[in-house]
Amino acid sequence: MITDDGRELWTSATGRGEPILCCHGGPGLWDMFGTLDPGPGFRLIRWDQRGAGRSDPRGPYTLERMVADVDAVREWHGLDRVPVLGHSWGAHLGLLYALAHPERVSALVYVSGVGLGYDWHAEFEQNFERALGDRHPRWAELRAKDRDEAEERELAVLQWTADFVADGARHAEAMATPWFPINYEANVALGKEMRAAPEPELVEACRSLRVPTLIVDGMADTRPRWAVDSLEQALPSVTRVRLPGVGHVPWLEAPDAFRGAVTDFLERYVRPW
Q1: Which of 31, 48, 78, 115 has an alpha carbon 20 to 30 Å from 87's alpha carbon atom?
Q2: Contact, 46 vs 14, CB < 8 A?
Q3: CA 73, CA 52: separation in Å to the nearest integer?
Q4: Which residues, given as ranges, of the chain have pLDDT below 70?
Q5: What's the pLDDT score for residue 271?
């Protein structure tokens, strides 16, 4: 598909039934929802965000532009109102889209997001180093040097192993296959803009958001889950599901529990029987 500013975005629809528009993590990464099984009766609308994966490797990279791209994907697939499911950075993008266009979002599924502020980062770094254990020195070595493509992939796989409680290396390898270059320009630009947004303003905006929202936390996520509390408290219509012993990518570590939480929520608010 082509955006209004001439950027080509890769997008895909899989399954049949009620559509779910997915926003992947990053920024600067690509769609990794290929193993997400929402169950029968649901259809996944997937896409690679601009600058990443199979999409056009050009910006601009701003929050406003990314929100516009979400809307362009929705429109391209011929959808009026649609549930939006976002993971990690994509959870924040989904929230921003719901705030900008609440009339176009029937429900929001906010998976492993990091909340509205940034006080959580110091605790995350401690958790991350502990989770990597004896792999941390190699991660730090790679992080500090100029890397070729093989080392870039090795760094990403090492980093992603910390996102899992069990079988981290296997899951991280799957996430890195197929491999695409990471767009650090997008990561830096969007991260800087997100950090500049005052948390009180976001909290206030969320207070008037009437879109039903499901927050899904893996309680063993290295990103502290208390960081999401202000979002939960601000939203007028919110359900929160906490999955014990699960890390940052719950559909890989606990697929049945994750699918059950999401489908129960969507069947209640989007497709009532």
Answers
A1: 78
A2: yes
A3: 15
A4: 271-273
A5: 65
